[in-house]
Write a structure and sequence with these properties.
The complex is a heterodimer of chains A (253) and B (250).
Chain A lengths: L5 E9 L8 E10 L5 H14 L22 E2 L2 E2 L21 E5 L8 E3 L2 E2 L2 H9 L20 H11 L6 H5 L6 H12 L8 H14 L10 H5 L7 H16 L2
Parallel strand pairs in A: 1-5
Antiparallel strand pairs in A: 1-2, 3-4, 3-5, 6-7
Chain B lengths: L1 H7 L1 H6 L6 H7 L2 H26 L6 H12 L3 H31 L16 H6 L2 H20 L8 H6 L5 H10 L1 H28 L8 H31 L1
Helix pairs in contact in B: 4-6, 4-11, 4-12, 8-11, 10-12, 11-12
Classes of the chains: A alpha+beta (253), B mainly alpha (250).
Bound molecules: protoporphyrin IX containing FE and FE2/S2 (inorganic) cluster.
């Protein structure tokens, strides 16, 4: 890997607040170290902006190691940039070439209003989780490791669903801004396990109702979400959500 | 607006009065519920396509055989009319749900991206046709209007049904032949049927997923079955247009 530095043109969405119509601003950034992450590159841009007396670009981030799901950026029309199974914080500048123009936009969904610049409000996801309700577990001592039998394949699939970090890339990438992949992961991880059975029916109905209320779109089964998901959640969970929903609709009290 | 939606929701509100159906009707109104109904109505329409094509393939068997089929179908009388009404209801339900979910989808992204790209394998077929469901659906709807005007009402202004009535050769077979050999009309059929093929090439596969029918062992086969169904139906109907053209030459 050569250590050659990159010169980039950045087209960044700037928006002063939720009511501001917003606009693209173009910045020139030289001497970008190819080993930097995408977020570190934005840090460098912000230092440059602060030095020249401009407002830094607001963007979300937290863990910077691919687990918190905060770093929500649309990079050249791709959620989290060009790589599969990668969050923006895990994307490195060596993926780009000197002279590239990079367009950076916030997630676009009516349910994710822009707060400022590249930061969107994803609390709609939190309300969907809340609408799913609680899980009944006994308090007291931790149960014996093998007291509740769960087949290995079921465990694995439930864990795959639980890998969702709630970043919203599925919504961002979907042509309908649908939240089906997110909701299906959250429904699946509990519906498959014995611990999730007590509230199984109520959970799926509550989450789907809330998903609609937040203004997400319907699912066209285009599978763009699966390709964009940094946690590689499969659309087979959407099929499971649909099954859970039919079951709940036919049996709910 | 309010009164329109009240009239449109009347069937649903009546159904909700049936004991046991209340919660089901309520669940059917969500985005997931509406998609499930689209898949069910779509599959039922596919069932119609199969029977319709099977009957029409009798055109290959010749004039007498086809006219006999048409007459026996017409002899069903009110039963046939009831089936036609049911079919119309299916189409209207499917289209109504299409309008409703499409409106939901548009609302969900009011501000579009300046740049949008895909991470899917560009050679993968499912991603392609799914973006054309509304366009192909509208083309099919126009085709259906043309088709009913041509064949059911026999009122297509560019087809000369009168001549056949005058010289006493008019029959169901003759009418179909006249329609399919009318130049402008036959192109309408070709466009409509190709739109149907594209619609089904995503629709059938999508409907399985929407109904929760998905399994890692069977998904590959479902992909193939969806494509096969779409294009066998389409080519089957298209072949009848070609057949009519060939017969008029010979
Ligand atoms: C013979 C006629 C038709 C057949 C057999 C058919 C079949 C289907 C099937 C099987 C689906 C998939 C259900 C799913 O979403 O999972 C579908 C979806 C759809 N159909 Fe049709 N359809 C027909 C006519 C129409 C017409 C006339 C329209 C008119 C406007 C239409 C609009 C749509 C739309 C918008 C979708 C869903 C797009 C989405 O997935 O979001 N279809 N159709
Ligand atoms: S900052 Fe936590 S996942 Fe990227």
């Amino acid at each position: 890997m050569s250590g050659e530095h990159l010169s980039l043109t950045l087209r960044v969405w700037r928006q002063d607040g939720p009511e501001d119509p917003g606009r693209f601003e173009t910045y020139q950034l030289d001497n970008v170290n190819p080993h930097m992450s995408f977020l570190e590159m934005l840090d460098v841009l912000n230092e440059q902006l602060i030095e020249s007396g401009d407002e830094p670009v607001e963007f979300d981030h937290d863990c910077r190691e691919g687990i918190c799901g905060m770093c929500s950026l649309m990079i050249n029309g791709q959620a989290h940039g060009p790589d599969r199974a990668t969050t923006t914080c895990q994307l490195h500048m060596r993926r780009f070439r000197s002279g590239d123009t990079i367009t950076i936009e916030p997630w676009r969904a009516s349910a994710f209003p822009v707060v400022r610049d590249l930061v969107v409000d994803r609390s709609a996801f939190d309300r969907i989780i809340q609408a799913g309700g609680y899980v009944s577990v006994n308090t007291g001592n931790a149960p014996d490791g093998n007291a509740i039998p769960v087949p290995g394949t079921v465990q694995e699939t439930a864990m795959d669903a639980a890998a969702c970090i709630g970043c919203g890339a599925c919504v961002a990438a979907c042509k309908n801004a649908s939240a089906m992949l997110f909701v299906s992961a959250k429904v699946s991880q509990l519906a498959m396990l014995p611990q999730g059975q007590a509230e199984r029916t109520r959970r799926v109905l509550g989450m789907v109702t809330q998903m609609d209320e937040e203004g997400f779109g319907a699912c066209t089964n285009t599978s763009e979400c699966e390709a964009a998901c940094p946690a590689e959640i499969s659309v087979s969970h959407i099929a499971r959500l649909n099954r859970e929903y039919v079951r709940a609709a036919l049996t709910a009290g | 607006m309010g009164s329109v939606s009240r009239i449109l929701s009347l069937p649903a509100r009546l159904l909700a009065q049936v004991p046991g159906l209340g919660p089901v009707v309520q669940a059917a109104a969500t985005s997931v519920g509406q998609k499930i109904l689209m898949a069910v109505t779509g599959f039922l329409l596919c069932g119609f396509l199969v029977t319709h094509l099977a009957g029409n393939l009798l055109l290959y068997a010749g004039e007498e055989r086809f006219n006999h089929y048409a007459e026996s179908l017409h002899s069903w009388g009110v039963v046939l009319n009831a089936a036609e009404a049911g079919l119309l209801a299916l189409f209207l339900a499917h289209i109504g749900l299409a309008i409703s979910t499409t409106a939901m989808n548009r609302q969900a992204r009011r501000h579009r991206y300046a740049e949008k790209d895909s991470k899917q394998d560009p050679t993968a077929i499912p991603g392609g046709a799914s973006s054309w469901m509304v366009v192909t659906g509208i083309l099919i709807a126009f085709f259906l209007i043309l088709h009913v005007t041509d064949m059911r009402l026999k009122m297509n202004p560019v087809v000369d049904y009168e001549a056949a009535v005058q010289d006493g050769t008019m029959s169901e077979f003759r009418a179909v032949h006249l329609v399919l050999t009318s130049y402008a009309t036959s192109w309408g059929y070709v466009v409509g049927l190709i739109a149907l093929g594209i619609h089904l090439s995503h629709g059938v596969r999508s409907a399985f997923q929407t109904l929760g029918i998905s399994h890692p062992r069977w998904n590959g086969l479902l992909d193939i079955a969806g494509q096969l169904f779409a294009w066998v139906i389409t080519l089957g109907f298209l072949s009848l247009v070609v057949l009519a053209a060939l017969r008029s030459v010979s």
